Amino acid sequence: MKLVLASIVVLLASPVYAQEKELNDTSMGRLRHEGNAMLNDSKVDDPSEYRGGAPATQRSLVKISGDVVDGSRRDEVVLIQLKQTADHQRGGEFYLGLKIPGAGTTDDAMFDALVANYRDGFHFNLPIYAPNLPEKPVTPSFIQSPNGRFRTYIQDDGALVTYEVMQPGNTLRPVWSSMSGAIPQNPGLNVEDQGDEAR
Fold first, then answer.
1. I need a labelling partner for 166 at 20 to 30 A (CA). Which of 56, 63, 137, 146 fits?
2. Nearest to residue 193, comparing CAs of 146, 134, 140, 137?
């Protein structure tokens, strides 16, 4: 009986059952497992980092997946991928996928919420909400080209719209929109009316 109890004490005291497990400790940093967290602490003036890689023939280089675990079954609900661009010119691409509720477990169940690369910029495929904005109308603000010919407004309906300032009369003609809100159909707006009409 004493031998059995001693074996249990030794087993529970072993690193496998410890709350904290040292994985690696060098002069540069320390890697350990504590509870359900993986901790990587730098000992030098250089941040801890994780680098993942894949052969040049692979488009996806690193995947970070958020899964719901149910017994031995895993259901991926959030996916972050770091990729090279489709042209294989070694440009960087960031991808965020979100599972569509009730859509199963195939790749088609993942919605491309955000895709970003240098050439195309950020592609948000979901609405962007800003609950911290005041509900009352705000004074319209804009950025203007150095020659004063174009103005870009962020409107209350969420659209980002660029107008050309037409002369004579300082009327505004919409020339580009982010398409996240309606472009005014009026072909010419007076600059003084912009605050009421275009927002």
1. 137
2. 140
